[in-house]
């Protein structure tokens, strides 16, 4: 007659891995590591891009410009914008189209930033960093939660 302790030992011996085999990683552990790594990379990239844009735009003046002309395509074209500076100078500037949104077509208004001392050569598209903040927060939270889940599901040493 087998006792409960004997049955428990038999079940434990049956389901435990032999000592000669290496520890197996649970699929959920591997998935959490992959998600945490990918979300962490996106968080750092998104956050770093936001900081770089903020640094580049700081100290510059902001204006609303009218798109006068667009030539070529997004990768090799140019865009011409006109705007009025804070000291009432009318400026017409030409930029490479690569950094401008596809919605910037002739006759539309776009927000720009420029250096007050050299508005013609320093004009660039304004980047509203408040729009990227929710994405950065989302990627950061997903990375932290996935990393925590990976830590909690990691294989334990015997």
Describe this protein's structure.
The chain is of the alpha+beta class. 42% of the residues lie in helices and 21% in strands. The protein has helices at residues 4-15, 27-57, 119-122, 133-152, and strands at 61-71, 78-84, 90-96, 109-114, 124-125. A five-stranded antiparallel sheet has the order 3-2-1-4-5. A hairpin with a 6-residue loop joins strand 1 and strand 2. Helix 2 (27-57) runs antiparallel to helix 4. The two termini are 31 Å apart. Residues 65-123 form the DUF3592 domain. InterPro entries: DUF3592. Keywords: Membrane, Transmembrane, Transmembrane helix.
SSE topology:
Layout: H1 4-15, H2 27-57, E1 61-71, E2 78-84, E3 90-96, E4 109-114, H3 119-122, E5 124-125, H4 133-152
Antiparallel strand pairs: 1-2, 1-4, 2-3, 4-5
Helix pairs in contact: 2-4
Distance between the termini: 31 Å
Assign a percent range to the helix content.
40-55%
What portion of residues belong to β-strands? 15-25%
**Helix-strand makeup class:** alpha+beta
CATH topology of the domain at 60-128: OB fold (Dihydrolipoamide Acetyltransferase, E2P)
- Return Rg in Å: 29 Å
Q: How many helical stretches?
A: 4
Mean model confidence by pLDDT:
82
Oligomer: single chain
Query: What shape does the CA trace take?
Result: elongated
Which key features would you list for this structure?
membrane, 4 helices, DUF3592 domain-containing protein, transmembrane helix, 21% strand, OB fold (Dihydrolipoamide Acetyltransferase, E2P), DUF3592, alpha+beta
